[in-house]
Amino acid sequence: MLGFLTRTRGKSRMDVTDILAWAWLILGTLVIAIPIGWAFLSSFKPEAEINSFPPTLLPRAAQELVIEGYDDPLPAYAWTDEQGQTRTVGLVRRIGLKATVVDPESPGERLSVDAGSIVKQTAIRPAWSNYTEPLERFAFLTYLKNSVFVTTVATILTLVLNSMAAFALSKYRFRGSTTIFVLMLSTLMLPLSVIMVPAFMVVVGLNLADNLWGVIFSTVATPTGVFLLRQYMLTIPDDLIEAARVDAASEFRIYWRIILPLSAPALAVLAIFSVIWRWNDFLWPLIVLSSPENYTLQLGLNAFQGQFTVQWHYILSMTVVALLPVTLIFLFLQRYITEGVASSGVK
Amino acid sequence: MASIRMEGLTKAYGNLEVIHGIDLDIEEGEFVALVGPSGCGKSTMLRMIAGLETISRGEIAFDGEVVNAMSPSERGISMVFQSYALYPHLSVRKNLSFGLENLRMKRAEIDARVAEAARMLELDAYLDRKPKALSGGQRQRVAIGRAIVRHPKVFLFDEPLSNLDAKLRVQTRGEITRLHRQLGTTMIYVTHDQVEAMTMAAKIVVLNGGKVEQVGRPLDLFERPANLFVAGFIGSPRMNLYDGRITGTEGGAARVASPETGELLVPLGGVAAGRDVKIGLRPSHFAVGAEAAGSPLLLEVDQVESLGHETYLHGRLNGAETTTIVHVQNHLDAAPGDRVPVRPRDGHIHLFDAQSGLSLGRV
Amino acid sequence: MTAFDDGYPPPGRARPMSAADRRDRVLEAGMRLLEWPFAQLQRLIGLRRMPWVFVLPNMALFTIFVFVPVLLAIGYAFTGGTELLLWNRPFVGLENFSRLLSCGSYLDPASCELDLFWTAVFNTAWYTAFNATGTLVVALVTALVLNRLTRGKAFFRAIFFYPVLLSPVVVALVWKWFLARNGLLNAVFADLMGQRTIFLLEVLWSRFWVVYVSIWFHMGFYTLIILAGLQAIPRDIYEAALIDGTSRWRQFWRLTLPLLMPNLLVVLVLLLIRSVQVFDEAWVLTDGGGPGTSNTFLVQFIYETAFATDVRLYGLASAASVLMGLALLVLTLVQLWLGKKAEN
Question: How far apart are CA B261 and CA C333, in angstroms?
């Protein structure tokens, strides 16, 4: 029955366990894809449609016709005349059971027809304004800039500082190196929630409260990054460093010209993770940043959705913007990420 | 080019002393091999000369100038590592020029030196390749090239041939000696392989347990080993060694006896009867077969290794337990089970004191 | 070899300059600029002290933002008042702890002085229980299914892992919309039940969806870890079992599960550690722990006590942090112990 839990390979025909396994995979894929896909499709719906129930699948909007002699575009209707022929016409007005329409082929002529003989025409049309308006009218452009700034600067600093520390901890034996390493490792599991208050005090004490640098500086010295890079650098033969010393390279040159290029795979993994961490950070920025002009995208999104009137068409579009970079990174670097996670247990 | 003098050179890791006060002089332009079994301290010693290990006590001087506190690059040395330690992300050209760039040398000069090294080592065709795309022998030449371009005062080699196959090893051995002749630079060569040391070096330093056992020209070490260790280490196959005893003295001669050799009368003075000794006989220092006809010593043959132009007999002398190896020039018809008469050649019997291991002389 | 008395053959002519050479020269010049301060330092302090120069920047930030706060956290827990700076705060001894722990009955949050804290404790407890077991089971099954795939493994692994990379706010909003009054789920629900439900405003439904979303969000990570454990089991064991005619059901219980057990235990403890810290996605999804306090968890209590009320009770929040930290410490030690046991 539950034999699908065991593994076998190389069978020739499908059996019950295969069917159950595939059912699980397909179900799982749907469970993951549907909410995201639904949010994505909905983000293109105009305000009127997003609030209608039952919902439609695709973003639709009333079709309009530009007809000579009319200043504004007219809503498009399909009119079926007495002969049973269907034409597209523009609706001028509707009074009771009678509607006045105009045929775009003969713009001068107004027709009075039965209201029952015309059907409103809609077309799939994404509401791009959902995306442009929050950036223009609300502060989302600022949030976006802040997020990009924090992510970029923090990632660069993380790579530089962590790789320097990892270099020292992997390629030198010096008094205190083990102490430092153990100290860092012991905080690997330490969650922010335990040191929220004193960490905030430190930020206030350094005059970095409500400042993007307060978010950046406190996140760059990641023990995870140092650990990951150190483990990788341990695999670089020490001979190379000695050869470089014989070659009159300064210690910095050894770091820059030998260690960094050879650690590229590990640096790439850390860079990917750092970008994702900093882009997605929520609780710490929530504590440090208080004025809206300093909000990151995540904070801005949260603040915006908490407002009294919930404007889902804007929220969803900005949600898509927030998940886009991570999704692109994942699409292109999927293999690095899953293998990095599997081998290091880092998340 | 530089002469090197070491005085009381000592290396200790905490309480563990691995090099015990070595004194050694290396002359300008000399090719010296440091040889010994693994763990004897030869690599540590080389790395101390290079400046990669700190010196616990004693001093090293290049041309009379103490270099203890100098970094490797200040000492003007070059080193070829056992693993070659080629920078895997740099092309051959960049591998060669890296050290010169670090010295802020002019580009024209760098190019000239790289070109010259490439020509000497026949690397021209590979300059733009990465080390990964080279064969073992080519990598080894790049490693040597990287050492050459710096025009060092001293070349240091740390077991440079151990990663090559047998054929390439012989060929590279020749190339390194040729290089030494051409450049005339002082070279220090670390190896565990006594054949390499014997064939390449002008002077061999035999190390064991962090101490120098003997220093000398290759043939000296072979013919007059100072002690049991050197006797056993130099020469291939190893010297046959037997437990023996001085059974009597007659004027300037002594009687030595062991189960394997029976009693031998050797011209050796200054020894007292009853002293325990070791008797050493090199495999090649036996007269065998017809040449030894009438000898009371018989080799009971267990195994015959015939290489065509020479033959090795493995067997037991006089029915004793220890295995004896005998080397015969040319082909010898022998089969396991045969008893072949043998006789140690006069003047080629080594005697060592059993307690101290020191040589009592070759007789 | 007549002109060169050092024995080296005469130098060849310099190569012409290529584009790559020019790029190298620019890079080299840039590197020299960065190298300069380090090289000066190295000259000054010597090679042996250089590693300190390399660890120092990282260590400084680490000390300031992680290590000092860890030490201060305990200090805060024993002080009162609303001042943020530790040295301005009056020492109150164990008062914060005694307030947190004063209860008529520990089984009834309403009887406690700080009923919100105990509500949060209980909420966190049930969340942890359901989330940890749920995630473990789902991740285990998914890992087993993925492991037996011969084709499409990388594809499905990626699909299941993708949500892990999303931000908690994004996940919460995606689901909030999915569960909204006009959402997709209600469209189906209305069809089947004849009426719409506002899922996140009903106590049981909201608790269900908080756990569900959490499993949805994080299971991919644990799947990967379990999958790595499964792949570490040598294949020939199964081949031997196949030759012995062992049924697949037995293979799972007698081979896979025991061999995977160390891995699963570590995953379970990791899950417990992470579950206790639940905050972000649940907070956004439930509009701050609602309905009422049905989804108010410990971290939310700490955050709101310290930062989101007019009277900022840093001491009380820190005392709660310390209690939570102790619980996490115990779990971490268990994990280290399990990890060590798994190695042997």
Answer: 70
